Amino acid sequence: VEEVLEQADYLYGSGETEKLYRLLVQHKNSDDAELLWRLARASRDLAQLSSTSAEEKRQLAYEALEYAKKALEKNESNFAAHKWYAICLSDVGDFEGIKTKIGNAFVIKEHFQRAVELNPKDATTIHLIGIWCYSFAEMPWYQRKIAATLFATPPTSTFQEHAAHSHSKLFSCLYTADPNFYSKNLLFLGKTYLKLNNKKMALLWLSKAKEYPAHTEEDKQV
């Protein structure tokens, strides 16, 4: 297992998405949570490639969720298993409609929070909690009506919070995450400053996002 993990981390660091998936999918029946959450991540990364067809994207999204779920079952104390379960659950929501996506939102947040409890230094998870706050602050009125229907008493006070408060909360998450660790973090810091009507600081962070070295397709999109 250690050898496979070492090889997998090397391929991930090298951006060899397809090779990484082919390596890890051979171990899909493993009982090792470390292998399984990496397989969930690799499946998701493969789904994100522009060369992957729409049908393959859907299939990979559901596969990734199954691998992440299995990783959690094998080791509930693995922070990465919680993180990737939440990410993959969010991805599947894109295929199942807005009611499912909103219904899953609080489960997703719980797993992100559990991941942070298990590893408070993981910048990616802190960033993702920030994005969660942003998505609720930006929720259109018709989605809020769906949410109100689904939750007579919403599980958190998010639906009652003023947008500016949510954006302030987002800012603290993004900044705590180590602002320069990820191109999308820089982008959302800029967008958050725009929402807080601070164009000078928005320009600073958006410029950093623009100048960030583009290693992945997502970096280029940012």
Helicity level: over 70%
Please mark out the parts with pLDDT under 50 across 5 or more consecutive residues, or reply none.
155-166
Overall pLDDT: 84
Class by alpha and beta content: mainly alpha
Distance between the termini: 35 Å
Going by CATH, the architecture of the domain at 1-95 would be Alpha Horseshoe
Beta-strand percentage range: under 5%
Largest sheet, in brief, is: none
Which of globular, elongated, flat, extended, rod-shaped describes the shape? Answer: globular
Q: How many DSSP E strands?
A: 0
CATH fold-type name of the domain at 1-95: Serine Threonine Protein Phosphatase 5, Tetratricopeptide repeat
Quick one: CATH superfamily of the domain at 1-95? Tetratricopeptide repeat domain
Q: How many distinct helices?
A: 12
| Cα gyration radius (Å) | 18 Å
Pattern of helices and strands: HHHHHHHHHHHH
CATH class of the domain at 1-95: Mainly Alpha
GO molecular function, one term: microtubule binding
Subcellular location: Cytoplasm, Cytoskeleton
Keywords: Cytoplasm, Cytoskeleton, Repeat, TPR repeat
Subunit structure: Interacts with microtubules.
